[in-house]
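We read letters as residues; the fold follows as tokens. Both lines appear below.
***
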Amino acid sequence: MANNGKVAFIGLGVMGYPMAGHLMARGYDITVYNRTAATAEAWVAEHKGSSAATPRQAAEGAAFVFCCVGNDDDLRAVVLGDDGAFAGMRTGATLIDHTTTSADVARELAEIGQGRGLGFLDAPVSGGQAGAEGGQLTIMVGGAAALFDAARPAMDCYGKAVTLMGPCGAGQLTKMVNQICIAGLVQGLAEGMNFAARAGLDGYLVLDVISKGAAQSWQMENRGATMLRGEFEFGFAVDWMRKDLGICLDEANRNGARLPGTALVDQFYKTVQARGGARFDTSSLMLLLAKD
């Protein structure tokens, strides 16, 4: 199956659209599905390939079916049911889910898939839209080693670091750690930049200096200057970050982990939403520190 060049990609949002494009550029025979058909038509016009009217039709004959949708319910909607991907996949095919979801739904779909002779990998990604467009995503994967080994060449088309983290669900749990760390970093960066401004410092010069030391981070390199300019109309939306942090907090309630900082930042994002910033990017925490 791994040598079969036919694949499907379900979900052509800001991440899935370029990811599917990388697969096409590497020679895969790809069929796409998107809930908004016009987006799928635009993708085909740009990249060739073909589109299908349902996930089931897209998945027919594919060795690998990739998904990148919104949340647990969205994933179930495109995978299960008469028109879902599982209904169209043949025995031995593998579904690779790049959505950020709960570990529970990953395990649920893996079990259902196994009962139908299908493989399943949970493979959430980090790196944002820029990483997807540049083919430089970090991909954290949960599932069987044999399935991972077979699917890795395809994921290498858009991933710079593709790592098997453990059994099914481990990919999603690793993504939770990623989001927990990002939440704290963004809040710290917002507080630091606000402090610099109130102290009368040149914020851009501060960034240039401290980014060469122990404070350096991806968030600092990519969001520090835009914070200072008050630009929050790009990147990963607050709505999606709250979805992700909710998953983290639910999992922590089950496993007993204490996440006081994450819970606090989640409430800060709730305030951003209430002030009309639901579609602002996550660095909009800076807005809560501005003078009234």
